Amino acid sequence: MTVVHQSMQIPAAGVVLEADIVVPDSAYGVVLFAHGSGSGRFSERNRYVAGELNSAGLATVLADLLTVEEERVDARTAELRFDISLLTARVVALTDWLVESEATAGLSVGLFGASTGAAAALAAAAARPTSVQAVVSRGGRPDLAGDVLHLVRQPTLLIVGERDPVVIELNRAAMQRLGGETRLEIVPGATHLFSEPGALEQVARLARDWLRQHLNGSAKVT
User: Fold this and answer.
1) Per-domain residue ranges for the chain?
2) For the domain 3-214, what is the CATH superfamily, name and number?
3) Rounded Cα distance, 27 and 58, in Å
4) In this structure, how many other beta carbons lie within 10 angstroms of the beta carbon of residue 180?
5) HEC profile for 40-78?
6) What pLDDT, in 10s, does the model give residues 51-102?
7) Residue 53: which residues within 8 A CB-CB, separation 6 or more?
8) Is pLDDT above 90 for 4?
C-alpha cells in the first residue's frame, strides 16, 4: 500500500492550525480527529487508532484544534478545552477544508472525537449534515454538545470504557437525543483513557468497522 504523509498548516476560522495528514492510495474516506481535554495531534491513543484506520484504507487528519499560544493558555487555565463553540468552529472549518482540498476532495468524511472533542465533532456534524457521513466518539462528552444533538442525523458510534460509569450514563442520555442511527459500545474492563491491555485495540476495531460501513463513497484514485 502506498501512503502519502504530509504535515500542513491549515487556515481555520481565523487561525492557522497544524495538522498531520495520511492518505493511503485508493482511500475511500477520510477521518478528521477532534482531540479534547488538552490533547492534540501527537496523542498516542489517537495516532494508534489513526494508524489502524490507515491500514483499512481510510485517510486520516490529526489536527491541533488550538494554536501554540492557545495551548500555553489552556495549560494554565484548562478553559479552552471546554470551549465547545470554539472547538466546533474549528472542526467545521477543517471539515470544509477537507471537502475542498486536492488530497481529500471526493472522499466521504467521518469525524472521530475524544473526550470534549466528541462534543465538537457532534456539533460540527450537525452544522455540516451533507459533508459529514459518520461520527465516532471515544470516551466522549456528547452532553457538552447541548441543544444540537437532535440535529445530528449521521450514524454515530459511542465507545465508552466499562469502568467509566459517569461517562457511560452521559452517553446513554445523549443516545436519547441524537437524531440518527446510534450505537453504544462498552469496552469491558476499560477506564476513561482505555490504557488497559487490549482496550485501545478494541476501540480501533470498533471505529474501523463503523467507519468502513458508513463511509461508503467511491474510492479516490491516486
Assistant:
1) 3-214
2) Alpha/Beta hydrolase fold, catalytic domain (3.40.50.1820)
3) 5
4) 15
5) CCCCHHHHHHHHHHHHCCEEEEEECCCCHHHHHHHHHHC
6) 999 999 999 999 999 998 988 888 888 888 889 999 999 999 999 999 999 9
7) 31, 60, 204, 207, 208, 211
8) no
C-alpha 117: how far from chain center: 7
The three-state (H, E, C) secondary structure of the chain, written as one string = CCEEEEEEEEEECCEEEEEEEEEECCCCEEEEEECCCCCCCCCHHHHHHHHHHHHCCEEEEEECCCCHHHHHHHHHHCCHHHCHHHHHHHHHHHHHHHHHCCCCCCCEEEEEEECHHHHHHHHHHHHCCCCEEEEEEECCCHHHHHHHHHHCCCCEEEEEECCCHHHHHHHHHHHCCCCCCEEEEEECCCCCCCCCCCHHHHHHHHHHHHHHHHCCCCCCCC
Is this prediction's pTM over 0.70?
yes
φ and ψ at residue 85, rounded to 5 degrees: -60, -45
What was the pLDDT predicted at 222? 36
What is the residue type of 172?
R
Residue pLDDT, tens place only, 140-184? 999 999 999 999 999 999 999 999 999 999 999 999 999 999 999
For residue 29, what is its C-alpha cell? Answer: 474516506
Spatial distance between the Cα atoms of 137 and 159, rounded to a whole number of angstroms? 6
What pLDDT, on the 0 to 100 scale, is given for residue 182? 97
d(CA 123, CA 151): 8
Name the one residue in this structure whose C-alpha cell is 485501545. Answer: 200
